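Weekly modeling sync, notes
Attendees: AB, CL, MP (scribe)

Item 1: holo prediction request
CL wants a bound-state model with protoporphyrin IX containing FE before deciding which constructs to order. AB pointed out that an apo prediction alone won't tell us much about the pocket. Agreed to run with the ligand included and paste results into these notes for async review.

Input as submitted:
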Amino acid sequence: MNSEDGALITQSLEIASERGGDLTGAVYARLFHERPDLEPLFVMDTDGAVRGEMLSRVFDAILDFVGDRAYAHNLIHAEASNHDGYNVPRDTFTLFFTTVAKTVEEACGDAWNEGMSQAWKRLLNALDAYIAA
Ligand code: HEM
């Protein structure tokens, strides 16, 4: 990852939010479509507030990770372990970040480009190291 990747990822998130608005519904619909077994984990989240809060933390973490990296690497590492308490398997972290990437790509539509695609690939690979650690 380099600073250009960070700029492309930030840009893609800005465009996705301008065009797609709140992506919470789209992210979790895609996640549960691919892994229906994950939906019951959120059964306590009757109004969707936890899902929304979690996704907003994930977006913040991504922006920090591609920028200053002040806390995101520690947060992701810590959450992977904290989420053991919610019975969330480690491999779902990679899936969640991939799901976010696909949803952002879809929301960007024709504004999505090859540079963004490569930058997100490198980001997903870099995140993996903190999830596995
Ligand atoms: C870096 C990635 C992640 C971050 C920063 C994160 C953050 C959080 C936070 C802050 C909460 C508590 C929210 C609240 O109570 O308001 C939460 C709850 C939860 N997260 Fe995550 N999360 C991450 C990844 C995941 C993944 C990959 C899954 C699997 C699908 C997952 C499943 C859950 C579940 C099941 C809960 C509890 C729901 C409930 O209490 O009803 N999280 N997460």
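Recorded for review: Residues 89 and 104 are 23 Å apart (CA to CA).
Action items: CL to compare against the apo run; MP to circulate these notes.
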